[in-house]
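Hi Q.,

Before the meeting this afternoon, I wanted you to have the adenosine-5'-diphosphate prediction in hand. No need to reply - just skim if you have a minute. The sequence and ligand are here:
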Amino acid sequence: MSLRFHALNNLLNSSPIAPGYTSKITAIFAENVFSHQTARQFLSDEAFKSLMGSIKSHQKIDRSMANQIANGIRAWAESKGVSHFTHWFQPLTGATAEKHDSFFTIKSDGTPIEQFEGDALIQQEPDASSFPSGGLRATFEARGYTAWDPSSPAFIMDIGYGKTLCIPTIFVSYTGESLDYKAPLLKALEALNHAAVDVCNYFDRNVSKVTATLGWEQEYFVVDEGLFNARPDLVMCGRTVFGHGSAKGQQLEDHYFGSIPERLYAFMRDYEKEAYKLGIPLRTRHNEVAPAQFECAPIFEEVNIAVDHNTLLMDVMTRVAQRHKLRVILHEKPFAGINGSGKHNNWSLATDTGVNLLAPGKTPKTNLMFLTFFVNAIKAVHDYADILRASIASAQNDFRLGANEAPPAIISVFIGQYLTKVLNDVKERVGDDFDEQDESLLKIDIHRSIPELLMDNTDRNRTSPFAFTGNKFEFRAVGSSANCANPMTVLNTIMAQTLKEFKKDVDALIEKGEKKEIAIIHTIREYIVASERILFEGDGYSSEWEKEAGKRGLENIKTTPLALDAMVTEKAKSLFENNKIYSESELEARHEIELEKYIKKVQIEGRVMVELASSHILPSAVRYQNVLLENVQRLKEAGLAEGACTERTKTLNKISEHINKVSTLTEEMIEARKKCNKIEDSREKAIAYCEEVKEKYFDAIRYHADKLEQMVEDKEWSLPKYREILFLR
Ligand code: ADP
Ligand code: MG
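Predicted structure with the ligand bound:
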């Protein structure tokens, strides 16, 4: 019996495991986090103060205090039954990395003890040679180290059998190049902080810190583990490379916000419990549009913490699912013909005086501050749309961007009717001429009309990659499996850069003797004029928009190898160097790593296709072909008239045709891949893999394979079908 039927059999006997938590959420929230309260409890006054100081000032912890802090953390961890610790970091592979060490050690006199030294807390040297470095460490220094970022608290991961103390770290080479997602993100947030505080001070001198906030919405699929395991493509690539669409897909839209199936519900409560213990503030859960697709979202947090929490959650979900004999699929497009998964990044800026800079104000002055940040964000996206596009490029996201349920690869900004009108007003009434000021403009009352805007849901454009939603922007083009750090690094860097330019422009006018408010509104006007072509209110999924965007000169780069070019232009290099995020060599290295990832992903998919075609699809088809042949032969032997076999003969011919096509196309694809593999240059190789392998063969082979699935007798088919994977649980 094939794995498919085993899995189907087992499904009949599956039942939900009891839901995860029965207490109130507040009773378990952050119980596995070394939070401020816990620190207070386990550290001396001196050590506590030192730690809080480091967190506040984003400094490394004081060496002289490190032992005390480490001891406190160990005491806490041991009180919870922890025996091992690890530096937890986010390498460029996309997953999180850990290497566990025990507290246990043997003293020189042979006494076994448990200890955790300050040095081990602050810095470690994982054997890092197998992490992608884009050649950085080959040219500079072979080693890398991880260093504690005290702004993210330590936590205990206790899923399954292990209980491990995790110290969130950045990962850098000995010569200082970033080798992970976190180090550049922290730099970008710092750059943004400085630039935004400077601009805030035009309006309020009390602002001394601006933090970027992120609230992600994670979409994912969940399928039965047995069915998942019977699909080598899901196991190897996280997506199905074959599979005929089921008769029912998402056309009835009956899954969206529908009641959550019991088995899934149990799983959700269970991973939520683990998430709460880790301090991840989950808030919503619901069914998504596609069958077997779901979403969860937390309360927003500071970007740095939100990024950690998202990567942690992806890990937690994946692990907890296995307890329930389920599998989480985070791939951007696991199933053809139904929606893919994204990870909307809701983003805003908050001051230490408690103001959301992207929320319209209540007075003319705060209105002007809102307009300033709002328009700077639009200008940033306009000026650096190509780099923002590159930040979300991946082999997986290519299947989604521009497909009919996801934002297009064209970056545009949606702001809604009312704010469009406000920007037009500013543009027209301020004019180019300084002499004819319309001072009444400074009194524009945005706030009064905003509540109506927020009420009006029709004004929410679901098709825009970057949409204003009342008090934040929502970057929707981010892929579901992505680490948010990359798009967040870019978004905050381009915002920092734009705000710096804004300040320069405003100051120049002030120096010429212009009043501050007039200088600001004039610069705002200029920025509106300079970036308005990126504003689009219509249907982003339509083909008219593609044409219109072309006319406006907006780029529409559909494939990753080409989209990545924007990372290494002169523009990108000076942007990232000016803001001290990436050096030129770091950018080149990252570019190289992304290209490599792309090549490998396509390569693996190509291989899986060949494997499935030759060891599953063709054998199934041939077996069924034989059944038909035998039937035809018997009919003939029985002396029936010629016409009796016509239909079967037709079917036989069709099956033969598809079999031949699958075989010849896979052979050709193998040859095409061999050619690609000979290409030295990564960019050219990636482009070749995209155009000569993926685009030429993937859909073509799939077409014939899926036809065979439809024709071959069900019991002969060894791969679980879409209707089973998506609808049975
Ligand atoms: P929806 O977009 O589904 O209507 P909401 O507008 O309530 O839902 O929020 C969606 C996401 O936006 C949530 O994850 C929430 O945490 C996040 N969010 C809300 N306000 C902010 C903010 N100021 N900064 C960043 N994210 C925010
Ligand atoms: Mg949303």
